[in-house]
Amino acid sequence: MSNVIVVTGASSGFGALTARALADAGDIVYAGMRETGGRNAPQVEAAAAYAAEHGVDLRSVELDVSSQESVDRAVAAVEAEHGRIDVLVHNAGPMVVGPAEAFTPEQLAQLYDVNVLSTQRVNRAVLPGMRRRGAGLVVWVSSSSVKGGTPPYLAPYFAAKAGMDSLAVSYAGELARWGVETSIVVPGSFTRGTNHFAHAGHPADAAVEAEYETRYAGLMGQVAEKLAALAPDADASLVSDEIARIVALPAGTRPYRVHVDPAGDGSEAVSDLADRTRAEFLARVGLGDLLGA
Hints:
The protein is an alpha/beta fold. It has nine helices and seven strands. The protein has one domain: NAD(P)-binding Rossmann-like Domain (Rossmann fold, 3-Layer(aba) Sandwich), CATH 3.40.50.720. Belongs to the short-chain dehydrogenases/reductases (SDR) family. This is Short-chain dehydrogenase/reductase.
Protein backbone atom coordinates (compact mmCIF):
# COMPACT_ATOMS: atom_id res chain seq x y z
CA MET A 1 0.00 0.00 0.00
CA SER A 2 1.30 3.43 -0.91
CA ASN A 3 2.36 5.78 1.85
CA VAL A 4 0.44 9.01 2.29
CA ILE A 5 3.11 11.68 2.74
CA VAL A 6 3.14 15.39 3.57
CA VAL A 7 6.26 17.43 2.75
CA THR A 8 6.52 20.95 4.14
CA GLY A 9 8.27 23.75 2.29
CA ALA A 10 7.88 21.89 -0.99
CA SER A 11 7.64 24.79 -3.42
CA SER A 12 11.34 24.57 -4.32
CA GLY A 13 14.74 23.22 -3.30
CA PHE A 14 15.01 20.06 -1.21
CA GLY A 15 11.25 20.07 -0.61
CA ALA A 16 10.21 20.05 -4.25
CA LEU A 17 12.85 17.46 -5.14
CA THR A 18 11.79 15.25 -2.22
CA ALA A 19 8.12 15.43 -3.13
CA ARG A 20 8.93 14.32 -6.68
CA ALA A 21 11.29 11.53 -5.55
CA LEU A 22 8.68 10.13 -3.17
CA ALA A 23 5.96 10.32 -5.82
CA ASP A 24 8.27 8.53 -8.26
CA ALA A 25 8.55 5.74 -5.67
CA GLY A 26 4.79 5.20 -5.88
CA ASP A 27 3.64 7.12 -2.82
CA ILE A 28 0.78 9.61 -2.53
CA VAL A 29 2.56 12.89 -1.89
CA TYR A 30 1.21 16.25 -0.78
CA ALA A 31 3.64 19.07 -1.51
CA GLY A 32 2.90 21.65 1.16
CA MET A 33 3.43 25.28 0.28
CA ARG A 34 1.91 28.66 1.00
CA GLU A 35 0.26 31.06 -1.45
CA THR A 36 -0.72 28.29 -3.85
CA GLY A 37 -3.07 30.69 -5.58
CA GLY A 38 -0.57 33.53 -5.67
CA ARG A 39 3.21 33.62 -5.57
CA ASN A 40 3.57 29.84 -5.72
CA ALA A 41 0.93 29.24 -8.38
CA PRO A 42 3.68 28.45 -10.94
CA GLN A 43 5.08 25.82 -8.56
CA VAL A 44 1.62 24.27 -8.21
CA GLU A 45 1.36 24.09 -12.00
CA ALA A 46 4.86 22.60 -12.22
CA ALA A 47 3.97 19.88 -9.71
CA ALA A 48 0.76 19.05 -11.58
CA ALA A 49 2.65 18.91 -14.87
CA TYR A 50 5.26 16.59 -13.31
CA ALA A 51 2.53 14.31 -11.98
CA ALA A 52 0.83 14.12 -15.37
CA GLU A 53 4.06 13.57 -17.30
CA HIS A 54 5.36 10.85 -14.98
CA GLY A 55 2.06 9.24 -14.06
CA VAL A 56 2.57 9.75 -10.32
CA ASP A 57 0.37 10.95 -7.48
CA LEU A 58 1.85 14.32 -6.58
CA ARG A 59 -0.53 16.97 -5.26
CA SER A 60 -0.05 20.48 -3.94
CA VAL A 61 -1.72 21.60 -0.74
CA GLU A 62 -1.98 25.05 0.80
CA LEU A 63 0.12 24.78 3.94
CA ASP A 64 1.63 27.83 5.61
CA VAL A 65 3.78 26.44 8.42
CA SER A 66 3.65 29.83 10.17
CA SER A 67 -0.10 29.49 10.69
CA GLN A 68 -1.65 26.83 12.93
CA GLU A 69 -4.98 27.37 11.19
CA SER A 70 -3.42 26.70 7.78
CA VAL A 71 -1.58 23.64 9.09
CA ASP A 72 -4.69 22.20 10.74
CA ARG A 73 -6.76 22.76 7.61
CA ALA A 74 -4.21 21.06 5.35
CA VAL A 75 -3.76 18.05 7.64
CA ALA A 76 -7.51 17.66 8.09
CA ALA A 77 -8.01 17.70 4.32
CA VAL A 78 -5.41 14.97 3.75
CA GLU A 79 -6.76 12.80 6.55
CA ALA A 80 -10.33 13.28 5.37
CA GLU A 81 -9.37 11.92 1.94
CA HIS A 82 -7.10 9.06 3.00
CA GLY A 83 -7.83 8.47 6.66
CA ARG A 84 -4.18 8.80 7.61
CA ILE A 85 -0.78 10.39 7.10
CA ASP A 86 1.99 7.79 7.12
CA VAL A 87 5.04 10.01 6.68
CA LEU A 88 5.71 13.63 7.59
CA VAL A 89 8.77 15.38 6.16
CA HIS A 90 9.82 18.53 8.02
CA ASN A 91 11.65 20.45 5.32
CA ALA A 92 10.46 24.07 5.54
CA GLY A 93 13.29 26.38 6.52
CA PRO A 94 14.52 29.56 4.82
CA MET A 95 18.13 30.68 4.88
CA VAL A 96 19.56 34.11 5.65
CA VAL A 97 23.08 35.39 5.04
CA GLY A 98 24.97 38.29 6.56
CA PRO A 99 26.73 39.35 9.76
CA ALA A 100 24.77 38.23 12.82
CA GLU A 101 24.84 41.67 14.46
CA ALA A 102 23.08 43.25 11.48
CA PHE A 103 19.94 41.13 11.93
CA THR A 104 17.23 42.51 14.18
CA PRO A 105 15.85 40.34 17.01
CA GLU A 106 12.56 40.31 15.11
CA GLN A 107 14.29 38.79 12.09
CA LEU A 108 15.80 36.03 14.22
CA ALA A 109 12.42 35.37 15.82
CA GLN A 110 10.79 35.04 12.39
CA LEU A 111 13.51 32.67 11.19
CA TYR A 112 13.17 30.58 14.34
CA ASP A 113 9.42 30.54 13.85
CA VAL A 114 9.65 28.97 10.40
CA ASN A 115 12.57 26.62 11.06
CA VAL A 116 11.62 25.42 14.55
CA LEU A 117 8.17 26.46 15.79
CA SER A 118 6.60 25.38 12.50
CA THR A 119 7.58 21.78 13.21
CA GLN A 120 5.66 21.97 16.47
CA ARG A 121 2.57 23.27 14.67
CA VAL A 122 2.67 20.47 12.13
CA ASN A 123 3.49 17.80 14.72
CA ARG A 124 0.52 18.79 16.86
CA ALA A 125 -1.71 18.32 13.83
CA VAL A 126 -0.19 15.08 12.43
CA LEU A 127 1.05 13.13 15.43
CA PRO A 128 -2.32 12.37 17.08
CA GLY A 129 -3.26 10.26 14.05
CA MET A 130 0.08 8.48 13.96
CA ARG A 131 -0.10 7.72 17.68
CA ARG A 132 -3.64 6.35 17.38
CA ARG A 133 -2.49 3.98 14.65
CA GLY A 134 0.75 3.09 16.41
CA ALA A 135 2.73 3.69 13.25
CA GLY A 136 4.32 6.47 11.24
CA LEU A 137 7.57 8.12 10.28
CA VAL A 138 8.73 11.67 10.92
CA VAL A 139 11.66 12.83 8.78
CA TRP A 140 13.50 15.95 9.89
CA VAL A 141 15.71 17.73 7.34
CA SER A 142 18.48 19.10 9.53
CA SER A 143 21.82 20.61 8.50
CA SER A 144 25.46 19.65 8.88
CA SER A 145 25.94 23.14 10.32
CA VAL A 146 24.41 21.87 13.58
CA LYS A 147 27.64 20.07 14.48
CA GLY A 148 30.05 20.56 11.58
CA GLY A 149 32.30 23.28 10.26
CA THR A 150 30.42 26.57 10.10
CA PRO A 151 31.61 29.58 8.10
CA PRO A 152 30.57 33.05 9.34
CA TYR A 153 27.59 35.04 8.08
CA LEU A 154 25.07 32.20 8.51
CA ALA A 155 24.63 32.34 12.29
CA PRO A 156 20.83 32.92 12.46
CA TYR A 157 20.15 30.02 10.09
CA PHE A 158 22.62 27.73 11.86
CA ALA A 159 21.13 28.55 15.27
CA ALA A 160 17.60 27.80 14.04
CA LYS A 161 18.67 24.50 12.50
CA ALA A 162 20.38 23.54 15.75
CA GLY A 163 17.12 24.20 17.58
CA MET A 164 15.19 22.04 15.15
CA ASP A 165 17.71 19.21 15.41
CA SER A 166 17.53 19.27 19.22
CA LEU A 167 13.75 19.11 19.06
CA ALA A 168 13.96 16.13 16.69
CA VAL A 169 16.24 14.25 19.10
CA SER A 170 13.82 14.64 21.99
CA TYR A 171 10.79 13.82 19.86
CA ALA A 172 12.46 10.60 18.74
CA GLY A 173 12.44 9.24 22.30
CA GLU A 174 8.95 10.51 23.08
CA LEU A 175 7.44 8.89 20.00
CA ALA A 176 9.25 5.54 20.22
CA ARG A 177 6.74 3.86 22.53
CA TRP A 178 3.92 4.92 20.21
CA GLY A 179 5.54 3.02 17.33
CA VAL A 180 6.34 6.24 15.45
CA GLU A 181 9.82 6.30 13.90
CA THR A 182 12.21 9.22 13.54
CA SER A 183 14.84 9.78 10.85
CA ILE A 184 17.04 12.87 10.88
CA VAL A 185 18.53 13.60 7.46
CA VAL A 186 21.53 15.90 7.57
CA PRO A 187 22.43 17.61 4.30
CA GLY A 188 25.75 19.33 3.91
CA SER A 189 26.26 22.38 1.70
CA PHE A 190 24.95 22.07 -1.85
CA THR A 191 25.62 24.70 -4.49
CA ARG A 192 23.68 22.88 -7.24
CA GLY A 193 20.04 21.88 -7.43
CA THR A 194 18.74 24.12 -4.65
CA ASN A 195 18.15 27.87 -4.41
CA HIS A 196 18.94 28.37 -0.72
CA PHE A 197 21.60 31.00 -1.37
CA ALA A 198 19.77 32.66 -4.26
CA HIS A 199 16.62 33.19 -2.17
CA ALA A 200 18.38 33.87 1.12
CA GLY A 201 17.23 36.75 3.29
CA HIS A 202 19.50 39.59 4.35
CA PRO A 203 19.97 41.76 7.45
CA ALA A 204 17.62 44.67 8.06
CA ASP A 205 20.39 46.86 9.48
CA ALA A 206 22.21 47.90 6.32
CA ALA A 207 24.52 50.27 8.17
CA VAL A 208 25.95 47.53 10.39
CA GLU A 209 26.20 45.21 7.40
CA ALA A 210 28.23 47.85 5.55
CA GLU A 211 30.59 48.19 8.50
CA TYR A 212 31.30 44.47 8.43
CA GLU A 213 31.99 44.64 4.71
CA THR A 214 35.04 46.77 5.50
CA ARG A 215 36.62 43.73 7.18
CA TYR A 216 34.83 40.80 5.48
CA ALA A 217 34.30 42.05 1.95
CA GLY A 218 32.91 39.39 -0.40
CA LEU A 219 32.96 36.71 2.30
CA MET A 220 29.90 34.77 1.14
CA GLY A 221 31.14 34.72 -2.43
CA GLN A 222 34.43 33.26 -1.25
CA VAL A 223 32.67 30.62 0.84
CA ALA A 224 30.34 29.63 -1.99
CA GLU A 225 33.28 29.30 -4.38
CA LYS A 226 35.22 27.08 -1.97
CA LEU A 227 32.18 24.90 -1.22
CA ALA A 228 31.56 24.40 -4.94
CA ALA A 229 35.18 23.36 -5.38
CA LEU A 230 34.99 20.82 -2.52
CA ALA A 231 32.14 18.90 -4.17
CA PRO A 232 31.71 20.17 -7.73
CA ASP A 233 29.38 17.39 -8.90
CA ALA A 234 27.17 17.20 -5.79
CA ASP A 235 23.53 17.88 -6.59
CA ALA A 236 20.69 18.44 -4.14
CA SER A 237 18.90 15.41 -5.56
CA LEU A 238 21.28 13.30 -3.44
CA VAL A 239 19.26 14.46 -0.42
CA SER A 240 15.84 13.82 -1.91
CA ASP A 241 16.93 10.40 -3.15
CA GLU A 242 18.15 9.50 0.33
CA ILE A 243 14.86 10.55 1.90
CA ALA A 244 12.98 8.41 -0.62
CA ARG A 245 15.27 5.47 0.20
CA ILE A 246 14.61 5.83 3.92
CA VAL A 247 10.85 6.06 3.48
CA ALA A 248 10.85 2.92 1.33
CA LEU A 249 12.58 0.84 4.01
CA PRO A 250 10.45 -1.52 6.12
CA ALA A 251 9.14 -0.08 9.38
CA GLY A 252 11.61 -0.69 12.18
CA THR A 253 14.68 -0.61 9.93
CA ARG A 254 14.91 3.09 9.13
CA PRO A 255 18.07 4.85 10.30
CA TYR A 256 17.92 7.36 13.14
CA ARG A 257 20.35 9.79 11.49
CA VAL A 258 21.88 9.90 8.01
CA HIS A 259 24.36 12.41 6.59
CA VAL A 260 24.42 13.52 2.97
CA ASP A 261 27.49 15.72 2.97
CA PRO A 262 29.74 15.50 -0.10
CA ALA A 263 31.94 18.34 1.16
CA GLY A 264 32.66 16.51 4.43
CA ASP A 265 32.50 19.34 6.97
CA GLY A 266 32.99 17.01 9.96
CA SER A 267 29.38 16.95 11.10
CA GLU A 268 29.03 13.19 10.77
CA ALA A 269 31.89 12.43 13.16
CA VAL A 270 30.57 14.82 15.80
CA SER A 271 26.99 13.61 15.41
CA ASP A 272 28.07 9.98 15.69
CA LEU A 273 29.71 10.74 19.02
CA ALA A 274 26.71 12.73 20.28
CA ASP A 275 24.21 10.06 19.21
CA ARG A 276 26.32 7.27 20.69
CA THR A 277 26.63 9.18 23.97
CA ARG A 278 22.86 9.69 24.06
CA ALA A 279 22.24 5.99 23.41
CA GLU A 280 24.67 4.96 26.15
CA PHE A 281 23.07 7.34 28.64
CA LEU A 282 19.52 6.18 27.89
CA ALA A 283 20.65 2.60 28.39
CA ARG A 284 22.26 3.50 31.72
CA VAL A 285 19.04 5.05 33.04
CA GLY A 286 16.91 2.14 31.87
CA LEU A 287 15.39 3.83 28.81
CA GLY A 288 17.15 1.86 26.10
CA ASP A 289 13.83 0.99 24.47
CA LEU A 290 13.48 4.65 23.42
CA LEU A 291 16.25 4.20 20.87
CA GLY A 292 13.90 2.62 18.35
CA ALA A 293 10.20 2.65 17.58
